[in-house]
Request: fold
Amino acid sequence: LVQILSVMVAARLLSGDTKSNPCVSDHSLSPAAVLRQAIAAMASICGWVVIFQTVCVFFDKWVPDTLPHEIRCLTAGLLELTNGCCRLSAIQSQQLRFILCNVFLSFGGLGVYMQTVSVTENLGTGSYLRGKLTQTAVSAFFSSWLSVILFPHEQLNFQLHWMLQIPISMIIFRKLFQFMKNNSRKTAAIGV
Reply:
C-alpha cells in the first residue's frame, strides 16, 4: 500500500517535469548481436551487485561495532537494497523496521541506481534519481504515519518520528503547491 501510494504521489508531484525520451528499437540486429548486448547488460548489472556487496562488506569490517544497528542498517540499505533488508532483523523497533523497509524498497539503493544507469546509458536517466528520491521521501512520510497505526503498542522515539515527518511534509506540500500553482497558470492561459 505504501509503495503504491508513494509511486502515485511521486508521479503526480513530478508530472510535467520529465522530457520524453522514446526508446528506439533496432530490428536490423542479428540474433547473435542481440545476445551479445543482453550478455553485456547482464554482466554490467552483476558487476554493480558485486561492487556494492563488496562495499557493504568493507563497511562492516572497517566501521566500528559501536555504531548503532539502525545506522549500519540504513547505510547498507541506501547502498544496496538486499543488504539493507537482510539487516532489518537486527533492529528491535517494529515501527522503525517498517519505515526503513519502505524506504529501502522505494529507493532501491545506490547499487540499483548504478545498474539502471549502466543499462540505460544511451537513453539517459532523465529525472530518474529525482523521481526515486521523491518516491522515497513520500514513502517515508506514509510509512511513518502508518507505523503508528500498525504498531500502536510501540512508541518510536518521538523526536525521530517528527524528524522524519516535518521536513518530508514540507517538501511534499511545497511540491504540491508548485504543481497546483503551475496548473492554475496553464488553465488561466488557455481560458478555462
Observations:
- The chain has eight helices and no strands.
- Helices lie at 2-14, 31-62, 69-79, 81-87, 94-107, 109-119, 128-150, 158-190.
- The radius of gyration is 20 Å.
- The mean pLDDT is 79.
